[in-house]
Amino acid sequence: MRRVVVVPCFNEARRLDADALSSIVDDDTGLLLVDDGSRDDTLATLHALAARDPRHIEVLALGTNGGKGEAVRAGLLHAERAGAAVVAYLDADLSTPVGEMRRILALLDERAGADVAMGSRVALLGRDIQRSPARHYLGRVFATVASTGLGLRVYDTQCGAKAFRVGVALRRALSTPFTSRWAFDVELLARLLDHVPPSAFVEVPLHAWTDVAGSKLQPLAMVRAGVDVVMISWRHRKS
Question: How far apart are CA 110 and CA 68, in angstroms?
Answer without folding.
Answer: 29
